[in-house]
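Priority: low. Protein: Phosphoglycolate phosphatase. Input follows.
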Amino acid sequence: MRFQVKLVMFDLDGTLLDTAPQIAEAANRMLVALGKPMLPQAQISTYIGEGVQNLIKRCLTGNPQVEPDAALFAQAQPLYHGFYTANATESLAYPGVLRALQSLQQQGYQMACVTNKPEKFTLPLLKHAGLADFFAMVISGDSLPKKKPDPLPLLHVCKTLAILPAQAVMVGDSDTDIAAAQAAGCFVVTVPYGYNQGRTIDAAKVDATVQQLTELTTLLEYPLNMQTG
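Result:
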């Protein structure tokens, strides 16, 4: 089955870039500065994907269901932001990402990056990785009033680019991406190498899974006979 789409939207962390090593380093430097024990990178990776505030809270408590002390959280935020600003651009693209984006661009697809990461980290990361120029739009976690899993970011991109949600696909690595895409009425394709809070994605929830992004061109078909919404 091939999906007829005009717009391909990508998640960032765990889909385009392997950001976990730098996020874990920054988080552990934050914890050390607060006099708390460091955490394994594998554990911190399970906290990625639902925004930086949730990441920091989970590092402080070790439990997604527990809120940290408000004063401690207020102290932790600037520490994490400072440490992550210093190393964020060291993150590397996953194998095949650049080649996939080049191929999609050559075939005429519009592309956007839709992430829950704050803009002050998103834009330098994309630029340093050489990916920024591929995207007609970049929506970060603080660009709009709501972020994924709410469909607003995806619908905003579709509306701005004058493309129907049914002519768009969201490519991501997590249940957050799946929920946003399904609520927006877009197709959803996932990769298995990302983070997804440490859980395996249920293949029954998605339209397709690819091992690398270079496989996208075998799934997508530009709808030459479909009108733009």
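The beta strands are 3-4, 7-10, 17-18, 92-93, 110-114, 137-139, 168-172, 187-190, 208-209, 220-221. The mean pLDDT is 94.
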